[in-house]
Amino acid sequence: MALNDFTAAEKAVFRRLDAPEKIQRFLDRDLAYNKEPDGHTCRSPRRALRDRTAHCMEGALFGAAALRMLGHPPLLLDLEAVRDDDHVLAIFRSRGHWGAVAKSNYSGLRYREPVYRTLRELVLSYFEHYYNHRKEKTLRRYSRPVNLRRFDAIGWMTSEEDVWAIPEHLCEIPHRPLLEPRLIPRLARVDDRLYAAGMLGWAR
Fold this sequence. Notes:
The protein is an alpha+beta fold. Helices cover 30% and strands 19% of the residues. It has a domain at 3-79 and 87-117 and 144-176. The protein has seven helices and nine strands, in the order H-H-E-H-E-H-E-E-E-E-H-E-E-H-E-H. The strands form two sheets. Strands 3, 4, 5, 6, 7, 8 and 9 form a seven-stranded antiparallel sheet that branches. The chain has a two-stranded parallel ribbon with strand order 1-2. It is globular, with a radius of gyration of 16 Å.
């Protein structure tokens, strides 16, 4: 599973995405946010590129494929929330530090520079920006990294069928708690300015 599995036109797109921040820019500017009902699609990177749309899961798959083209392992990390949707990141390491690319309808749940020494540090950087419409801070757990090489047999990068096996796997694996239980009842609500900032560019 490599660049050769894509068409010449698809390869040309990936070749332009020669840095993680360029991958994030492409996710933000070139792929519209997929507003179809949750669970309706799970497009491969090829289909997301062709349809020019992606939701969180589809954006993470595209990000992992693009990072793979740069020599990174195609790693996904699942963030698990309460009273809210999960979120999926395509993660990478640079000089021993973790970063991420992601597609989200919330402005604060996207790119992270590779400056985090541990995965927990990376996940914590999303905590204040991870909230629901009741202004509750909802992030609670995170998975271990999943290397998508394990799904090469189903052609996850170029499949014309939905690749449901990947999100199903992310839901099944253990997740680590991010917070001590005693801290949760004391969490404050998100203030109005942070809430408004996170909703900037919201696709309705």
